[in-house]
Protein backbone atom coordinates (compact mmCIF):
# COMPACT_ATOMS: atom_id res chain seq x y z
CA UNK A 1 0.00 0.00 0.00
CA UNK A 2 1.22 3.48 -0.89
CA UNK A 3 1.22 6.12 1.87
CA UNK A 4 1.47 9.90 1.72
CA UNK A 5 4.75 11.32 0.54
CA UNK A 6 6.59 13.94 2.59
CA UNK A 7 5.81 16.62 -0.01
CA UNK A 8 2.06 15.82 0.12
CA UNK A 9 2.03 16.03 3.91
CA UNK A 10 3.89 19.36 3.89
CA UNK A 11 1.41 20.75 1.34
CA UNK A 12 -1.59 19.65 3.43
CA UNK A 13 -0.10 21.06 6.67
CA UNK A 14 0.72 24.34 4.89
CA UNK A 15 -2.84 24.68 3.59
CA UNK A 16 -4.22 24.00 7.10
CA UNK A 17 -1.88 26.60 8.60
CA UNK A 18 -2.92 29.23 6.03
CA UNK A 19 -6.63 28.53 6.61
CA UNK A 20 -6.16 28.71 10.40
CA UNK A 21 -4.31 32.02 10.15
CA UNK A 22 -6.97 33.45 7.82
CA UNK A 23 -9.83 32.46 10.14
CA UNK A 24 -8.24 33.80 13.36
CA UNK A 25 -9.62 37.38 13.05
CA UNK A 26 -13.11 36.02 12.43
CA UNK A 27 -12.86 33.76 15.48
CA UNK A 28 -11.65 36.70 17.61
CA UNK A 29 -14.56 38.88 16.47
CA UNK A 30 -16.96 36.13 17.50
CA UNK A 31 -15.41 35.56 20.93
CA UNK A 32 -14.86 39.23 21.83
CA UNK A 33 -18.52 40.10 22.49
CA UNK A 34 -18.75 36.98 24.65
CA UNK A 35 -15.72 37.99 26.71
CA UNK A 36 -17.09 41.55 27.06
CA UNK A 37 -20.41 40.20 28.31
CA UNK A 38 -18.66 37.79 30.72
CA UNK A 39 -16.49 40.64 32.06
CA UNK A 40 -19.55 42.88 32.48
CA UNK A 41 -21.37 40.09 34.32
CA UNK A 42 -18.42 39.65 36.71
CA UNK A 43 -18.25 43.41 37.34
CA UNK A 44 -22.01 43.49 37.89
CA UNK A 45 -21.73 40.70 40.47
CA UNK A 46 -18.89 42.52 42.25
CA UNK A 47 -20.92 45.74 42.48
CA UNK A 48 -23.94 43.82 43.75
CA UNK A 49 -21.73 42.00 46.28
CA UNK A 50 -20.35 45.34 47.53
CA UNK A 51 -23.90 46.61 48.10
CA UNK A 52 -24.84 43.40 49.92
CA UNK A 53 -21.71 43.67 52.10
CA UNK A 54 -22.71 47.22 53.10
CA UNK A 55 -26.11 45.95 54.21
CA UNK A 56 -24.73 42.83 55.93
CA UNK A 57 -21.84 44.44 57.81
CA UNK A 58 -23.66 47.76 58.34
CA UNK A 59 -20.58 49.60 57.10
CA UNK A 60 -19.59 51.52 53.96
CA UNK A 61 -18.13 49.41 51.16
CA UNK A 62 -16.45 50.28 47.89
CA UNK A 63 -15.74 48.83 44.50
CA UNK A 64 -12.28 50.35 43.90
CA UNK A 65 -10.95 50.71 40.35
CA UNK A 66 -7.18 50.83 39.92
CA UNK A 67 -5.36 52.14 36.88
CA UNK A 68 -2.43 50.27 35.39
CA UNK A 69 0.49 51.27 37.65
CA UNK A 70 2.95 50.96 34.77
CA UNK A 71 1.06 53.62 32.78
CA UNK A 72 0.29 56.82 34.71
CA UNK A 73 -3.15 57.95 33.64
CA UNK A 74 -3.54 54.64 31.83
CA UNK A 75 -6.55 52.34 31.60
CA UNK A 76 -8.26 50.68 34.55
CA UNK A 77 -7.03 47.08 34.64
CA UNK A 78 -8.04 45.84 38.13
CA UNK A 79 -10.77 46.36 40.71
CA UNK A 80 -11.50 45.01 44.20
CA UNK A 81 -14.09 45.14 46.96
CA UNK A 82 -13.19 47.15 50.07
CA UNK A 83 -15.01 47.54 53.35
CA UNK A 84 -14.53 50.01 56.17
CA UNK A 85 -13.55 48.47 59.51
CA UNK A 86 -14.11 50.78 62.47
CA UNK A 87 -11.36 51.21 65.05
CA UNK A 88 -11.53 52.60 68.58
CA UNK A 89 -11.06 56.10 67.15
CA UNK A 90 -11.70 57.60 63.73
CA UNK A 91 -7.95 57.55 63.03
CA UNK A 92 -7.96 53.77 63.43
CA UNK A 93 -10.74 53.24 60.89
CA UNK A 94 -9.31 51.53 57.85
CA UNK A 95 -10.34 50.27 54.45
CA UNK A 96 -9.51 46.60 54.05
CA UNK A 97 -9.53 44.60 50.84
CA UNK A 98 -12.47 42.23 51.21
CA UNK A 99 -11.78 40.22 48.07
CA UNK A 100 -8.82 39.63 45.79
CA UNK A 101 -8.28 42.06 42.95
CA UNK A 102 -10.05 41.13 39.73
CA UNK A 103 -7.92 41.47 36.61
CA UNK A 104 -9.81 42.77 33.59
CA UNK A 105 -9.52 40.54 30.54
CA UNK A 106 -6.88 41.81 28.07
CA UNK A 107 -9.49 41.72 25.28
CA UNK A 108 -11.79 44.12 27.15
CA UNK A 109 -11.54 47.84 27.99
CA UNK A 110 -13.76 50.51 29.48
CA UNK A 111 -15.27 52.72 26.78
CA UNK A 112 -13.38 56.01 26.49
CA UNK A 113 -16.50 58.05 27.31
CA UNK A 114 -17.36 55.95 30.38
CA UNK A 115 -17.36 58.26 33.42
CA UNK A 116 -15.37 55.68 35.39
CA UNK A 117 -12.34 57.86 36.06
CA UNK A 118 -14.57 60.79 37.00
CA UNK A 119 -15.97 58.79 39.91
CA UNK A 120 -15.22 59.93 43.46
CA UNK A 121 -11.52 59.36 44.05
CA UNK A 122 -9.64 58.45 47.21
CA UNK A 123 -6.03 57.95 48.25
CA UNK A 124 -6.88 56.13 51.49
CA UNK A 125 -4.48 53.33 52.34
CA UNK A 126 -5.89 49.88 51.71
CA UNK A 127 -5.07 47.11 54.18
CA UNK A 128 -5.13 43.35 53.79
CA UNK A 129 -6.46 43.01 57.34
CA UNK A 130 -7.87 45.24 60.06
CA UNK A 131 -5.08 44.50 62.53
CA UNK A 132 -1.74 44.54 60.72
CA UNK A 133 -0.26 47.99 60.05
CA UNK A 134 2.44 46.62 57.76
CA UNK A 135 0.07 44.96 55.32
CA UNK A 136 -1.23 48.02 53.51
CA UNK A 137 -1.31 47.55 49.76
CA UNK A 138 0.57 49.94 47.50
CA UNK A 139 -1.89 52.05 45.58
CA UNK A 140 -2.20 55.58 44.34
CA UNK A 141 -5.55 57.28 44.28
CA UNK A 142 -8.33 55.13 42.93
CA UNK A 143 -11.80 55.72 41.56
CA UNK A 144 -14.61 54.03 43.45
CA UNK A 145 -18.31 53.38 43.80
CA UNK A 146 -19.21 53.57 47.50
CA UNK A 147 -22.26 52.01 49.12
CA UNK A 148 -23.68 53.21 52.44
CA UNK A 149 -25.01 50.82 55.11
CA UNK A 150 -28.48 51.63 53.74
CA UNK A 151 -27.52 50.18 50.35
CA UNK A 152 -27.56 53.55 48.60
CA UNK A 153 -24.74 54.52 46.25
CA UNK A 154 -22.93 57.44 47.90
CA UNK A 155 -22.04 60.57 45.95
CA UNK A 156 -23.97 59.52 42.83
CA UNK A 157 -26.56 62.12 41.84
CA UNK A 158 -28.04 60.28 38.86
CA UNK A 159 -27.69 56.82 37.35
CA UNK A 160 -24.02 55.99 36.98
CA UNK A 161 -23.62 54.47 33.54
CA UNK A 162 -20.41 53.10 32.06
CA UNK A 163 -19.55 50.54 29.42
CA UNK A 164 -17.14 47.75 28.59
CA UNK A 165 -16.17 47.13 24.97
CA UNK A 166 -13.80 44.91 22.98
CA UNK A 167 -10.23 46.22 23.26
CA UNK A 168 -9.65 45.94 19.51
CA UNK A 169 -12.88 47.70 18.53
CA UNK A 170 -11.25 50.64 16.76
CA UNK A 171 -14.39 51.54 14.78
CA UNK A 172 -16.01 53.09 17.84
CA UNK A 173 -14.28 53.37 21.21
CA UNK A 174 -17.29 54.88 22.99
CA UNK A 175 -20.34 53.59 24.79
CA UNK A 176 -22.33 53.54 21.55
CA UNK A 177 -20.08 50.84 20.11
CA UNK A 178 -22.43 48.12 18.86
CA UNK A 179 -20.46 45.49 20.80
CA UNK A 180 -20.34 47.36 24.12
CA UNK A 181 -22.12 46.22 27.28
CA UNK A 182 -23.48 49.02 29.46
CA UNK A 183 -23.59 48.80 33.27
CA UNK A 184 -25.89 51.10 35.24
CA UNK A 185 -25.92 51.80 38.99
CA UNK A 186 -29.01 53.55 40.39
CA UNK A 187 -28.13 56.03 43.18
CA UNK A 188 -31.13 55.78 45.49
CA UNK A 189 -31.49 52.00 45.50
CA UNK A 190 -27.92 51.06 44.59
CA UNK A 191 -29.33 48.47 42.20
CA UNK A 192 -27.17 47.52 39.25
CA UNK A 193 -28.26 46.51 35.75
CA UNK A 194 -26.79 45.48 32.42
CA UNK A 195 -28.56 47.80 30.00
CA UNK A 196 -27.42 46.55 26.63
CA UNK A 197 -25.49 43.73 25.10
CA UNK A 198 -25.14 43.32 21.35
Task: Describe it.
- With 198 residues, this protein is of the alpha+beta class.
- The protein contains one helix and 13 strands.
- The chain has a domain at 29-106 and 115-155: minor pseudopilin epsh fold, CATH 3.55.40.
- A hairpin with an 8-residue loop joins strand 7 (126-127) and strand 8.
- It is elongated, with a radius of gyration of 22 Å.
Tell me the CATH topology of one domain.
minor pseudopilin epsh fold
Number of helices: 1
Radius of gyration from CA coordinates? 22 Å
Give a count of the beta strands, DSSP E runs of length 2 or more: 13
CATH C-level category of one domain: Alpha Beta
Structural class: alpha+beta
Task: Give the second-level CATH assignment, the architecture of one domain.
Answer: 3-Layer(bab) Sandwich
Query: What is the helix content?
Result: 25-40%
Unreliable sequence segments? none
Strand proportion, as a percent range, falls in: 25-35%
What value does the average pLDDT take? 80
The span between the termini is 54 Å
> Main beta sheet, described?
9 strands, mixed
Shape: elongated
Order of helices and strands: HEEEEEEEEEEEEE
